[in-house]
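Morning F.,

Quick status update on the modeling queue. The single chain you submitted on Monday has been processed. Sequence for confirmation:
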Amino acid sequence: MSNSLNNLSRMGVAQAATTLQIHPFELVRALVNLERLPTDLRFTAAQVETLRDAIGLEVWFPEGRISEPTPRGLLKDIAHQLVNRGVVGEAGTRLDNCTRGLSEEEDELALHLLRGLISEGVLQSWTSELGLQIAIEEGKEYLVADLAEGGEPPGAVSALLQAAVD
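Structure tokens below.
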């Protein structure tokens, strides 16, 4: 009976992924790469929280809080998080950390802004065994620090901000 109760209190892949705010495929990929895939694909709440750390999941915008509810405010907050967390060079973070906690609309805009910063050479991106990673390009920290203070963004990002306001 005790074993049956234990199984009821454990969650499947979909529920664990929802708790972690990632796609179930992302969870399975990370589990395989970390060599932590359980044979029954069920997890306790404690195991899920341990996986959060192992996968590198962070919530940068708890409860969707941004300092200014504008596209420029969102850019400032993302830049501020990148600088404060020391996300430079090889010290990357998961791309989805930059948007976790945002509304769907803000998430979409944030991804466009991040892609713009990548295309302008301010940020770099690469795929790792735990997901898509981004970081400030070495030597470009001053640009991101300026964005965090409300400085003028590079061309493609400026155009995205203008289009978001229009």
